Amino acid sequence: MIPVCARNNNPLNLRGGQPYEGLSTPAVVDGFCNFVSPVFGFRAAIRNYITKSDRGIDTVRKLISEWAPPDDNNDTEAYIASVCKATGFKPDEVIALKTWDVCSRVCYAQAEVESGAPFETYWKQSDMAEGAYRAGIVDAPPPASKRVLAKAAAVGGALSSGAGMAEPYISTALQQPHSQTVQIALIVVGIALAVFGAFRSKG
User: Fold this and answer.
1) pLDDT tens digits, 114-156
2) Any domain includes 79
3) Does a structural domain hold residue 167?
4) Rounded to whole angstroms, how far apart are CA atoms 9 and 131?
5) Same domain, yes or no, for 43 and 131?
6) So what's the pLDDT on residue 56?
7) Of 135, 164, 179, which one is at a domain's C-terminal end?
8) Which burial class, exposed, middle or buried, applies to 133 when counting CB atoms under 10 A from its CB (0-12, 13-18, 19+)?
9) Residues near 2 by Cβ (< 8 Å), separated by ≥ 6?
10) Helices (H), the chain
11) 164 has pLDDT over 70
12) Inter-residue contact 104 to 128 (CB < 8 Å)
């Protein structure tokens, strides 16, 4: 049976009630947030990391004790042990949750605990990276749409003027749960706009 977190695109099982970006309709299913795609589920989870870090949450023990407290029928100590084993961090070791290296390792480990399955069973690391980028992790890998435009603009700078026009189409294609045909169409439109922008700037 597919777990709630996977059905709701909510890797870390965030409870409903917060106005996160990317919530689906309905926004809450079975008491947990329901997102339009895993990217937004990861984004919301990592936004939580950032908020908690700003409040002084800087160890695995502090993080998991808030995330899965024992008074909510959680085996908090077992959860802490699982995350520490997967990440290599000690329970009371100070960690920088607002860096990609740390948040990605912790998020990966938590996603496995929450789903009860290996990470790749339900999730993609590229979605986690994009969620982190959208959440504001400054050293997270940029999403595919940004990389496509960067490569295009790098070709003599010719497409740079069309990048702003193309980005929404490519971004939409790669970030939203469209069919493959729609994704390809949107990417083609984006590239065409980039080329158009380059010729217009030369004129």
Assistant:
1) 999 999 999 999 999 999 999 999 999 998 766 555 555 555 4
2) yes
3) yes
4) 12
5) yes
6) 98
7) 135
8) buried
9) 122
10) 4-7, 38-54, 60-67, 76-87, 100-115, 125-135, 144-154, 160-175, 180-202
11) no
12) yes
State the burial class of residue 37 (Cβ atoms within 10 Å of its Cβ: 0-12, 13-18, 19+): middle
Q: Please state, in angstroms and rounded to a whole number, the distance separating the CA atoms of residues 197 and 181.
A: 24
- pLDDT one-digit tens code per residue, 92-112: 999 999 999 999 999 999 999
Number of folded domains in the chain?
2
155 and 130 within one domain: no
Q: Are 156 and 126 members of one domain?
A: no
Residue 136: which region, alpha, beta or left (left: phi > 0; alpha: psi -120 to 50)?
A: left
> Which residue, of 135, 161, 191, is where some domain finishes?
135
Q: Residue 182's domain spans which residues? A: 144-202
CB 22 within 8 A of CB 36: yes
What's at 202, amino acid-wise?
A: K
Is the pTM value of this prediction over 0.70? yes
Q: Each residue of 143-161: b (16+ CB within 10 Å) or e?
A: bbbbebbeebbeeeebbbb
Q: For the CA atoms of the chain, what is the radius of gyration? A: 19
Residues 50 and 109 in one domain: yes
Task: Kindly tell me if the per-residue pLDDT of 76 is higher than 80.
Answer: yes
Q: Return the amino acid letter for 148.
A: V
